[in-house]
Amino acid sequence: MTIKPDTSPLSTPASSETIALAEDLRQCIGSFVRNVRSEANTPTSAQNETLALIARDGPQSMAVLAQKRSVKHQSMRLVIAQLEKAGQITRQPNPDDARSHLIALTAAGENALTTARQARTDWIAAKIQTTLNTAERQSLRNAITILQKLGAPTDDH
């Protein structure tokens, strides 16, 4: 049996310059995401992330949703109640556990998710159109390629 060496990003100490760059990137992306959501007037992160999880992975129990979002069951219960009140999710019997329900997306939930995504895309497109010149747009395209490379899963996962 061959044991692979640890090649994860955390196995090699980062230089102070790289740490500063990483912190700037983290802050920039966080600010960008918050600003886009605010300016595009889309649902809260909690609601949107929950809808996106259900859309991507299908109906799930509240416990699984809470675990995937790294929140407490009580917090997830509040988000589910808001989404249920808005008619964006529904509860279905859980075939694996009669004591729980699966949370599923409704047509209204799918529509809300699609509408929010489109609103954010439209806002970003308008901002690119009115703010960036041709060279900056190309730089942005290059930066997206780099971010995709940074965000790609590592071979050891």
Describe the structure.
By secondary structure, the chain is mainly α. It has one domain (40-151): Arc Repressor Mutant, subunit A. Helices cover 64% and strands 8% of the residues. The protein contains six helices and three strands; from the N terminus they run H-H-E-H-H-E-E-H-H. It has helices at 16-39, 45-57, 62-69, 73-85, 107-131, 134-151; strands spanning 60-61, 89-93, 101-105. It has a three-stranded antiparallel β-sheet. Strand 2 (89-93) and strand 3 form a beta hairpin. Helix 2 crosses helix 5 (107-131) and helix 3 crosses helix 4. It is globular and about 55 Å long. The two termini are 18 Å apart.
Task: Describe how the helices and strands are arranged.
Blueprint: H1 16-39, H2 45-57, E1 60-61, H3 62-69, H4 73-85, E2 89-93, E3 101-105, H5 107-131, H6 134-151
Antiparallel strand pairs: 1-3, 2-3
Helix pairs in contact: 2-4, 2-5, 3-4
